Amino acid sequence: MTTRSTELLRVVHRSPGVTRADAARLLGVGTGAATELVTKLSRAELLIQGPAAPSGARGRPTTVLLPHPDGPLVLAVAITHETWRVEAVQLGGTCAAEVEGRHAGAAWPQVRSAVRGAIGELRRQYGPRLRATGVSVPGTVSRDLRLDAVGAGWHDVDLTTLCPDTDVFVAGNDATLAATAESRRGAATDASVALHLRIESGLGGAVVEDGRPVIGARGAAGEFGHMPFGDPAVRCPCGARGCWGIAVDGQALARLLDEPAPLDSFSYARRVLASAARSAEPELSAVRTVAATLGRGIAGLVNGLDADLVTLGGLGADLLAAVPAEIGAAYRDGLMSIHRESPPPIVPAALGDHGPIAGAAEEAWSALLPRLA
Ligand SMILES: [Zn+2]
Hints:
With 373 residues, the chain is of the alpha/beta class. The chain has twelve helices and 16 strands. It has three domains: 3-67, Orthogonal Bundle (Arc Repressor Mutant, subunit A), CATH 1.10.10.10; 73-178 and 355-371, 2-Layer Sandwich (Nucleotidyltransferase, domain 5), CATH 3.30.420; 189-350, ATPase, nucleotide binding domain (Nucleotidyltransferase, domain 5). Helix content is 39%, strand content 23%. The strands form four sheets. The protein has a five-stranded mixed β-sheet with strand order 6-5-4-7-11, with helices on both faces. A five-stranded mixed β-sheet has the order 14-13-12-15-16, sandwiched between helices. Strands 1-3-2 form a three-stranded antiparallel β-sheet. The termini are close together. Zinc ion (ZN) binds at residues 226, 236, 238, 240, 243. Residues 226, 236, 238, 240, 243 line the site of zinc ion. InterPro entries: ATPase_NBD, ROK, ROK_cs, WH-like_DNA-bd_sf, WH_DNA-bd_sf. Belongs to the ROK (NagC/XylR) family.
């Protein structure tokens, strides 16, 4: 397929419902050439043309470009420490169907068979329309698609066995994928250097510069949770002392509350936040302590990276909603004076808990688009 056809699909993927005239302008082609491309892609059942919603303006009716209702789909899979979810996603990012379940910290073979069962269910429904697979996982993913998720006890796992009969398979770390999604469709679309941080079981994230995440030489970049912004008296499962991630998550709240380490760190943290929202003590004090540690660390990263926007996902977004003043005060205190005049905003991730799976779908679509005939 020609580059221009791929480019047009990319435009419709980014902005489903774009007018044909705007798409032609974005591609830098004339009206005739655009019509020809659209006709070709409609025949290939990739796009359809529809009338635009009436704008009230006079003139010729406008034509908009939309994903074909029987067009290709990608499978997007998100596995967390507690749950899994599989979606069939259209061009343009709309979810056509989903299957989900809980695994509550199961061993990898059990999680894999649950996910494979869900993929099989969607395959029976959509058959050959499913053309690519993108997977989000809570750990580091090597360039040969092997997963290490220390917190979950999954080591050197071959991710391609999740979906052996797919031509196009991509996988990545959940926080990195959430960062990508946030830059393409979320709160960071206008940022030049966006820092995304996601707290779930531990803390991960990514720096996205001009829409591209920095993934590192071995695919392990973004492990900001293991920077020493935490308590030097506490040893992290990674082997280091003073890690930031274990000072801002459910484990940190449990330590502050003198409670045993929770198995479901994320759900536990949300329960503590709910108590803090009713001004219950000592929960509120624990939440404030964690929030200040979060704000101080974000300042350190903004100083180091010169990001112009920070998005928070997972528990980070919940903390920002619950105790914004504590995060903000510690953040401003930690910023260099050059940033303090107009501190880069800290905002909740627009895609919320959907970020990692949305990023998995985005990467699957990016890999598939050039291959569509
Ligand atoms: Zn660590």
